[in-house]
Amino acid sequence: MKRIAWILPLVLTVSVAWAEEGKKLTEEEAQQQLQACQTDLQQLQAKIQSLQKELEQVQAQVNNLNPKEQALRQEIEQLKAEIAKYPSEYTVQRGDYLSKIAGMRYIYNNPKAWPRIYRANRDKIKDPNLIYPGWVLYIPHGIEKSIEVIPGDNLWKIAGFTWIYNNPRMWTRIYEANRDKIRDPDLIYPGQVLEIPRD
Question: Which residue range forms the structural domain that includes residue 149?
């Protein structure tokens, strides 16, 4: 505002100087120039007010975002702490069996997810009904984007796994994503690695 305030006196000074130098500046012309300067000044003042309002709005948005950012950071830290509770390994205790382990709160909290433990530890587990105290089992977590076919698998069964789609009817998604490997959806073979589409 202070920078703009000097415009009007400057115009008047220039007008007077022109008059003193013998320029033919009539009173009407001087009034027109003055009116034009006043119009420009009003427009500039209106623009400044508009920008000031925008600045205040942006500042308000920033002030609103700061608490949200802090809340999100706290939530992230809480999630990290929660994830850290989920073990990547489990040592078999006397009386354990796969569905019992899978049902533990910080394993999968779902006894039906036991095949995931079995599949991840087939180097140790030959019979899923026989596990022994002292064995250290790998406990996979996260979203599976691929799966290795083992004896007894079919697309319907794989799609129905709790950690895949938990819905056998979605077997067609796996089939469509692996048409280069699967010629007949009723025939898949041990050792094949199938992509699991997630989008």
Answer: 143-199
